[in-house]
Design brief:
The complex is a heterodimer of chains A (188) and B (433). Chain A is of the alpha/beta class and 188 residues long. Chain A has a single domain (4-160), classed as Aconitase, domain 4 (Alpha-Beta Barrel). Chain A is built from six helices and seven strands; from the N terminus they run βααβαβαββββαα. Chain A has helices at residues 18-21, 38-43, 89-96, 109-117, 167-172, 175-181, and strands spanning 4-11, 72-77, 101-104, 122-125, 139-143, 148-151, 156-159. Classes of the chains: A alpha/beta (188), B alpha/beta (433). The interface between A and B is large, with 43 and 53 residues.
């Protein structure tokens, strides 16, 4: 597991649902074909209403034009991030677009579980709400050992909650690697 | 100390005498369900992790029900059905309900019930968040992603964190015009879209037990809209009558102990329930129908796992019979069986299909259809800034298609009454006349 995650912030609000993260009409592409799956990056977060896309100003595109990669790799969210459907295309599209971490006040459980078990990115929980603190485009640094978030742009530091009981799965990489490590399934 | 029904089922499937909320346990899975949207991704992960020639853990426990993007020209969507067929063939899976055949069913959550896969005491996982629906049969059921589903396909097991339970008790009798949809919208409005996150929503009380299986399914279906891990109702004679008509397989009935510990308990007087809508753009944006009667509508939509069952259409037909809808009204039966019933069931000598047609409604084929928007050519997909009243489960921005549309979630009674007037309308006087 990486000890440091650095990147630019993309800030969203409360109750960002999976239809906002990846609208259902796009759930048709292959998640395993290296070329076709780029569509998921391209359409990631395109369902977010304009005024809430990239706070505080809003109307900030997550990916530009036909690009499947975003310049923003750390998502800041409010409460109940990832609510709605069980579609794993939601954390997958964010990873394909280059997201390495989400820091939210709280998560909907299936999204959280998918993020951890699939090893797409690390879902952190913040101790104090960050949506009004951090601006889209701020330069962030997460220290996984100290459980801290540094906002280099604003020169501020925040503590993050410990990853708790899912840290073993995150460290292993995903649920399969964890199960191999613990002897639940045979090593490949 | 006593256990809730959810705790008992989880304990029994993990080889333990007891579990408490917060325990992380590995459970044995009785049924894994997937569909056209998540099946292809699940199978790809399964092959990557267990090998190209790996076999699923138990052919008889895998159920594949295509239902999301079925009646569409979208080539990627149709390719995904081919991927399901290929996997079914490779694995020789007996429980597959192929598109374009007599065996096609439609919406997975109702099809699971109708085909006998919902059995008290069992554990069912599905790659769909509304898998919580099956909890109406006194079983543990919840939604998972492709990775967890692939893990189950290979091992028959998955880890579960034992949830705390919340108890929602309804005593007395629901008014005639109040449906299960009103009840669940009311509760979600009370506790919020994350009010049950990580928790079990257990429904109890004589008013709940007076409901049909379809209405009980509606209650459990939308547990996820409050963030719930599962919804559950203890099995009784209504349950076993339904199950026995659908399967000969054994089942086991569990009850919550008198001294079971609940995180939250609330008792409602059923007779005080009213018709409820969830206003745009969140299922917890609750309002009484009587407070929204000035909202003008462009269309009504009656369908989905939440509001596309026979009970839902019986309710709608009761109001639409002999009248004309004032707005575009879409009728989408959840499954083929419901569709067939629309041709058989009659009110006052007229079949439901004729009632809907004569009222001027449009009838679609059984599938998830516009509940989740879907490909551009999906039946009933919301356009532009339309205002829609819908018996579906989610009114998130863009959920039914257009990002500019506005969706009001409501019961079939409310949707039908509103279709007749063109604005949100209290069904009470229609129902009681």
């Amino acid at each position: 597991m990486k000890k440091i995650i650095e990147g630019l912030a993309y800030v969203l609000g409360n109750d960002v649902d999976t239809d906002q993260i990846i609208p259902a009409e796009h759930l048709v592409y292959s998640l395993s074909d290296p070329e076709e799956k780029k569509n998921y990056g391209k359409f990631a977060l395109t369902g977010v209403p304009g005024e809430q896309a990239g706070l505080p100003d809003g109307n900030v595109s997550f990916t530009e034009g036909d690009n499947f990669e975003s310049k923003y790799s750390i998502i800041i969210g409010g409460k109940n991030f990832g609510c709605g459907s069980s579609r794993e295309h939601a954390p997958a599209c964010m990873e394909i677009a280059g997201v390495r971490a989400v820091i939210a006040q709280s998560y909907a459980r299936i999204f959280y579980r998918n993020s951890v078990d699939g090893g797409f990115f690390i879902p952190f929980e913040c101790i104090t709400r960050l949506v009004e603190e951090i601006k889209t485009g701020d330069d962030l640094k997460i220290d996984l050992v100290a459980n801290t978030l540094a906002n280099k742009t604003q020169n501020k530091m925040y503590d993050l909650k410990s990853l708790g009981e899912v840290i073993d799965i995150i460290e292993a990489g995903n649920i399969f690697e964890y199960a191999r490590k613990t002897g639940m399934i045979a090593s490949s | 100390m006593g256990m809730t029904i959810t705790e008992k089922i989880l304990a029994a499937h993990s080889g333990k005498d007891s579990v408490v909320p917060g325990d992380n346990i590995w459970v044995d899975v009785d049924v894994l369900m997937t569909h056209d949207v998540c099946g292809p991704g699940t199978f790809a992960i399964f092959k990557k992790q267990f090998g190209e020639n790996a076999k699923v853990w138990d052919r008889d426990k895998v159920v594949i029900i295509p239902d999301h993007f079925i009646f569409t020209e979208d080539t990627h969507a149709n390719r995904n059905i081919d991927i399901l067929r290929q996997f079914v063939k490779e694995q020789d899976l007996p429980h597959y309900y192929d598109v374009g055949t007599d065996n096609y069913k439609g919406v997975c959550h109702l099809a699971l019930a109708q085909e006998g896969f919902n059995r008290p005491g069992e554990i069912l996982f599905g790659t769909d968040s509304h898998t919580s629906t099956s909890g109406a049969f006194g079983m543990f059921s919840t939604g998972i992603g492709n990775t967890d589903a692939a893990f189950i396909l290979g091992t028959g097991k998955i880890w579960v964190k034992v949830p705390e339970s919340m108890c929602f008790e309804f005593t007395g009798k629901f008014p005639d015009h109040v449906m299960a949809k009103d009840v669940i919208l009311n509760v979600i409005g009370d506790i919020g879209v994350d009010g049950a996150t990580y928790r079990s929503m257990e429904w109890r009380g004589d008013a709940v037990m007076s409901l049909s299986m379809e209405e009980r399914m509606t209650l459990c279906n939308m547990a996820i809209e409050a963030g719930g891990k599962n919804g559950i109702i203890e099995a009784d004679e209504v349950t076993t009558d339904y199950v026995r008509q659908r399967t000969d397989r054994p089942y086991k009935i569990y009850h919550s102990d008198e001294d079971a510990k609940y995180f939250f308990k609330k008792t409602y007087n059923a007779s005080e329930m009213e018709s409820i809508v969830a206003k745009p753009h969140s299922p917890d944006n609750k309002a009484k129908v009587s407070e929204c009667e000035d909202v003008k509508l462009d269309r009504a939509y009656i369908g989905s796992c939440t509001g596309g069952k026979l009970t839902d259409f019986m309710a709608a037909a009761k109001l639409l019979k002999g009248k004309k809808v004032q707005i575009d009204t879409f009728i989408v039966p959840a499954t083929r069986e419901v569709e067939e019933d629309l041709h058989k069931e009659k009110i006052g000598g007229e079949t439901l299909v004729d009632i809907f047609k004569n009222a001027g409604a449009y009838l679609g084929d059984p599938s998830c259809a516009a509940c989740l928007g879907g490909p551009k050519d999906t039946f009933g997909r919301a356009k532009d800034n339309q205002v829609v009243i819908s018996t579906t489960n989610r009114n998130f921005p863009g959920r039914m298609g257009s990002k500019q549309s506005h969706v009001y979630l409501a019961s079939p009674y409310t949707a039908a009454a509103s279709a007749l007037t063109g604005h949100i309308t209290n069904p009470a006087e229609f129902v009681n006349n």
